[in-house]
Amino acid sequence: MRYLHTMLRVSNLDAALDFYCNKLGLQEFRRIDNEKGRFTLVFLAAPDDDAEVAQSQKKGRPAPLLELTYNWDPENLGEARSFGHLAFEVDDIYATCDRLMKAGVTINRPPRDGQMAFVRSPDNQSVELLQRGAALPPQEPWQSMPNTGHW
């Protein structure tokens, strides 16, 4: 058994791609537009997973990927807490959170511990950011920044 992908429904494909690609840094790997079914699937990969995705493609199905599913007909997705979250490892949690804040993303759970933060996508999916390796030493403004909303 091997992990293939996680599927998330998105209500606005452009906003979702802006968040996942332009702000988080994922890369579009493949796109499928299905006119009969009236949906678009966009498969994304983390930049550090390029080699693993390319190698897995030789097995018939690329992995590990994030699949964004956009149904062309409007629907209210709500906020399902049963989903949990996506998790991405980052080289510098403080620099990543700073870049996201400057891009207009709310840091729901700041990286006070130098190790973990949470943000939300435009469709309210929770995204966990984890520091690669050991936690960074606590520093401001993160150390004293309160939580915003929930994750």
Overview of the molecule:
With 151 residues, this protein is an alpha/beta fold. It has helices at residues 13-23, 50-57, 93-102; strands at 5-10, 27-34, 39-45, 65-71, 85-90, 107-109, 116-120, 126-131. It is globular.
**Could you name the CATH class of the largest domain?**
Alpha Beta
Give the structural class: alpha/beta
Give unreliable regions as ranges.
none
The major beta sheet can be summarized as: 4 strands, mixed
The percent range for helix content is 10-25%
**Domain module count:** 2
Count of helix runs: 3
Q: How much is the radius of gyration in Å?
A: 16 Å
Overall mean pLDDT: 91
Label the overall shape: globular
CATH superfamily caption of the largest domain:
2,3-Dihydroxybiphenyl 1,2-Dioxygenase, domain 1
Remind me, CATH topology of the largest domain?
2,3-Dihydroxybiphenyl 1,2-Dioxygenase, domain 1
Q: Please report the total strand number as a whole number.
A: 8
Strand content: 25-35%
CATH architecture of the largest domain: Roll
Distance from first to last alpha carbon: 30 Å
How would you classify the quaternary structure?
single chain
Biggest sheet: strands side by side, in what order?
A: 1-4-3-2
